[in-house]
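Re-running the complex after MR caught last week's input typo. The corrected sequence lines follow. Everything else is unchanged.
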Amino acid sequence: GKVHHHTWNISYVHKSRDCFEKLAVTVNGEAPGPTIRATQGDTIVVTVHNKLETENTAIHWHGIRQIDTPWADGVAGVTQCPIHPGETFTYRFVVDRAGTYLYHAHYGMQRVAGLNGMIVVSVPDGFVEPFTYDKQHTVLLEDWWHKSVYDQATGLSAKPLVFVGEPQSLLINGRGIFNCSKPVPATGTCNTSSPDCGLRSLFTVVPGKTYLLRIGSLTSLSSLSFEIEGHSLTVVEADGHYVRPFVVRNLFIYSGETYSVLVKADQDPRRNYWATSHIVGRNPTTPSGKAIVSYAGNDPQMTPPTAPTTGPPWNNTAIRVEQSRAIVAHPGYVVPAPARADRTLILLNTQNNIDGHIKWTINGVSLHFPATPYLVSMKHGLTAAYDQRPPLDSYDLMGYNISAPAPTNGTIGSPVYRLAFDSVVDVVLQNSNMLDNRRETHPWHLHGHDFWVLGHGDGKFNPAADAWRLLNVKDAIMKNTVPLHPDGWTAIRFHANNPGVWLFHCHVEAHVFMGMGVVFEEGVDRVRRLPSSIMGCGHSKGLH
Ligand code: C2O
Ligand code: CU
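Corrected-run output:
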């Protein structure tokens, strides 16, 4: 394959992404950053210069499995030391499967500050996709706060907790419209003449043609519904895997997911249409994200004659679960799941009060990233660098009431699930009510793998009853991110055959910051000699 070289300067720039001026972390001055384009089998080389004056960084290539390059996964504290201001770090990895992927900062909560983008990997020459289209476009969905990342992180660590709150805006391809005539905080200004702000055409369609939209969500908090007024969306790909096509009016998409949909330009061509994103799963105070889909011949900026679409009710969980269940593998592209697992982890998430700090725990442990990246400490036997006590494979299934707040406190730690190399692992994610008894959606993302989505269930997963028989091994879709719906469970299966150390976490930035994640190790002894560029911090100082 080809080698694509990119040089990225990461720096803070004043941006007016939704008309309100705020510092954003940018790639070469842009937020979101450039779309990386390549063909399956190509190599991507990104030389990152950290030009943030006082802040570390690390960049994760979301959905890229990093086979043979676990040190390029870009997670500070897991696969590398953070890149300090003034330093340069080079990521080099192969994009081994066609599809739509993402990239974003993976240092603290830095993603909130705007370091986001997409990776589009085309099929190799001669390969025929199971659908056709005339042209393709990318659509990146984000949410956006006027509070700085520091303000947000400080609040989350505070006693008592100050939550980040609802975003001020939803962005589509990096742009939104904040109502600047509303009183704005004294610390900010609205810059309505900025080229970044305002309603604009996402793309122009020609009547009768079909378009492939590669849609990705890198929201920090929000679960979204996306729609194009009057047009149906045929879902054909999810996280790089072909889906048995199904038609929706609105696509539910969770942070860290990507979908490709086909849209046919089959509506009245004399007018334009709304493309909108709406918050679901949380009671929204945020206006919808809005952009225009224009028909050729019209002024692309012409506002549609109708009111913007408002989306489905935010609290209808059932229709979201139904759409999650509709996503199965395309019949011609089924990767059969192994018939059974060697090990099953049942991971209960709870919100806990640990010494006055609100944390998320998984089976009682709130994940704290160690100063030394796990990959280095595990490969080099630096046992003092992380918790040696293994975390629990399950929670108290019988005794625990998932419909009530957590009765116990839990602990903060940095343990690791050590998985037998080449084994098959099932994970059942079990949701439960929060301390205030509300119910949240958690999109879980696994680094270094795709997993089979075996099923989404209601209430409490019961391994003794018939839960296992309901699981789909026949045509399960493979994904890297999957929602865990309120008052329910989600079961996944994966093959622990990628030597390295991999994070598995909720993709809500505030949640992983509050400890909602676990770490898997598999075959670390098989990992080749680690590059010294990932070392130098914590216990890995001497190894640098
Ligand atoms: Cu896109 Cu660890 O995340
Ligand atoms: Cu979460």
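None of the earlier attempt is carried over here. The chain has two domains: 3-326, 334-543. The radius of gyration is 22 Å.
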